[in-house]
Amino acid sequence: MSELVLVSGEDEMILNMGPQHPSTHGVIRFIVHTDGEIISRAEPDVGYLHRAIEHIAEKCTYEGFMPYTDRVDYVCAMTANHVWASAVEKLAALPVPPRAHYLRVISDELNRISSHCIALGAMAMDLGAVTPFPYALREREYVNDLMEELCGARLTYNYHRIGGVGWDMTDAWRDKTLRFLDHFEPVIDEFDRLITMNEIFVKRLANLAVINAEEAVAYGLVGPNLRAAGVAFDLRADMPYATYGDILPKIGWTTPVGSGRMGRTGDAWDRFWLRVEEWRWSVKIVREALDQIQATPRGEFLIPPKRLRPKGDAMARVEAARGDMSCYVVGDGTPHAYRARFRTGSFNAMGLVREKSRGLMVADLVALIASLDIVAPEIDR
Amino acid sequence: MKAKEIFEHVAARVGHEAVFALDEAGQAEAGPAGEKAKEGARDGSFQVRPAELMAVMGALRDDPELAFDFLQNLTAVDWMKREVIQVVYHLFSYANRHEICVRVEVPRAAPHVASVVSLWPTANWHEREQYDLLGVVFEGHPDLRRLLMPDDWVGHPMRKDFQEPKSYRGMPTSRPSPLDLLVSYDRAHVAKATHATQPAPTPPPPPAPPETPS
Q1: Cβ of B101 and A304 within 8 Å?
Q2: How far apart are alpha carbons B85 and B159 in whole angstroms?
Q3: Triad B137, A56, A166: Cα angle to 5°
Q4: Cβ A231–B69 below 8 Å, yes or no?
């Protein structure tokens, strides 16, 4: 956090945006240097949501830290659960039953759908299109209901465990999820007609805040932001974890990448469209996983570790809704981690905002941070 | 490429004395639950002498056979007993789809490491965070300020010997547990009830319900 320094050039105005700004997606502050409407520099100031989660990891046991990982990213908590569980499993070389892997995939993908609902709905609303937001949130409510039935919570799930998941799914839940997917698939097309291909919206976003592949890689953009820049890399396909290696070939996976269909590759519209495409793939992945999980023995969803005292260090990476989320964990032979670090997609994306904001209009800064799908708690942790 | 090949490739380029302590553990095989896991790193890694860090990192990024274009993670670990701070870099290559972990150890009293911002711009915020939380000074960083903690915060909170101050700008940094508050509230309540000289007056009987016509 830094103080507002009231020194500027002759024609420069300093505009304080945030921390309580409705379109900053959480508590983030930008110190915006502008010349009229044109931004010369937007300096992000983060730390307002710093809850010292990495420090808490050093204080509680490996198993006991799981509920805190939900708070790393409360819009897509399932993948934060997943990355912690897989980091500790890798560190202690623990086995995970296949059914748990399928349940992890299913819950991750459902959470990705609901997270993208927020991302796309909120982005449209930030740009003045209010209608898509309730449509997207309606779908998210269905996912929240499914999650509540699966693990008892609507947002902070605490569902994954070290060595598996907390609960098995029921047949009724499986049927309900399939019904939701049948309902959701046409909604994606409806959403495309409503906003993605809307001429006004396209003109607003095309050629805006273009991030090319070189910049995206150098600044460490991950996930949808990286793929929108034209880099075909998805952890699920390129470094398969859990059971993605069995699922993706079956559904004919091709990694969606931005192509500059409406403007230039890596513009804000590409980033929006890419998340819509991810919805389509998530639906297919959940369908296939719900099909394949039937072959695994019911009830074998958790192998609880005994006396978890790992020594050494391990790095795990998981494709979260905001891209490659990684967790580095160091164990020193005690029941709690010696050091843990979460590296999240929003953290990397924020590092680029200062460079990319130069020359933008003030209203386009909102479009930039919305299109990068930044979630504040993920930055500060 | 495997960790060993990467290590040898780097050693050939920058000199064999600059890099050492290769650990090619890779991923340990999952054993049955409860079995004592193998100790050590789970990812291929090696250590670098602090003085040669930039040469090694430059080779890792620019050599076409290595081409580590993504600084996947940068973190620091405070090994208080050994009096060192270990800076850990996880690198990944989109072109070659391989990864490596590089470690640098610097004395805890004066942890100075060369900044890699010139190689990977994403390191800017990572290094600021490690400076903020662990006090690692990255030489040559363009803008080494605190990232998460307030500017006037004293000390580096992720150091193992960090003592949390009692208050910050007049605000207490801790508060009594709500459970303790509940217990003391209960005690006060019980004491009040038992010390009352007279029993509480019995409430008047509720009025009889109106008779319903049958």
Answers
A1: no
A2: 9
A3: 135
A4: no
Which chain A residue has its CA at the smallest distance from B71's CA? Answer: A220
Interface test with B, best of A2, A303, A307, A313 (most B CBs within 10 A): A313
Cβ neighbours of B69 in A, within 8 Å: 217-218
Structural domain contains residue B208: no
Instruction: List the domain range (segments joined by +) for residue B81.
Output: 3-27+39-172
* Residue A13 in domain: no
CATH code of residue B12: 3.30.460.80
- Considering CB atoms only, which of B38, B97, B125 is closest to A93? B38
Identify whether B87 is part of a domain.
Answer: yes
pLDDT for position B213: 61
| Angle, in degrees to the nearest 10, between helices A362-371 and A345-356 | 160
Q: In the predicted model, what is the mean pLDDT of residues A229-249?
A: 87
Is B72 close to A92, i.e. CB distance below 8 A?
no
Q: What is the pLDDT of residue A23?
A: 63
Asked if the model's pLDDT at residue B188 lies above 50, the reply is: yes
Distance in angstroms (rounded) separating the CA atoms of residues A33 and A36: 9
Residue B214 lies in a domain: no
Which domain does A320 fall in, by range?
A: 55-345+365-375
- The predicted model scores a pTM of 0.84
Cβ separation A2–B124 shorter than 8 A: no
Per-residue model confidence as pLDDT tens digits over A159-195: 998 988 988 888 899 999 999 999 999 999 988 888 8
- How distant is the Cα of A348 from the closest Cα of chain B, in angstroms? 7
Whether residue A72 has pLDDT greater than 70: yes
Domains held by chain A: number:
1
- The β-bridge relationship of strands A29-35 and A13-17 is antiparallel
Residue A74 reports pLDDT greater than 70: yes
Closest CA relative to residue A313, chosen from B27, B70, B116, B5:
B27
